Amino acid sequence: MQVVQGDLTDPQAAAELCAGTDTCYYLVHSMAATSNFAEVEQRCAQVMARAARDAGVGQLVYLSGLHPDGELSRHLSSRVNVGRILESSGVPT
Predict the structure, then answer these.
(1) What angle do CA 15, 19, 11 make, to 5 degrees?
(2) Whose CA is closest to 13, among 55, 62, 64?
(3) Which of 32, 54, 58, 78 shows a CA-CA span of 20 to 30 A to 71?
(4) What is the mean pLDDT of residues 40-52?
(5) Helix, strand or coil, per DSSP, at residue 38
(6) Predicted TM-score (pTM) of this structure
């Protein structure tokens, strides 16, 4: 296994991260970066989903937070949204 860091707001960087990769572990969390973390997390997930699909990644592994039924905090809502975006990529997630 190789750990690679990159800027997931940059589509070219994400494409390079995914090139030749069979399995990507999506361990991205943007809460500390800015007050609009949900928008940043959504953008990163969209960029990663597209890059993984285009590169033919075989599997995305996403570790979200556990959440109860009902209304969620902004943080947990963002985690759920990221999961939906990655699942919609067409790459097994």
Answers:
(1) 0
(2) 55
(3) 32
(4) 95
(5) helix
(6) 0.87
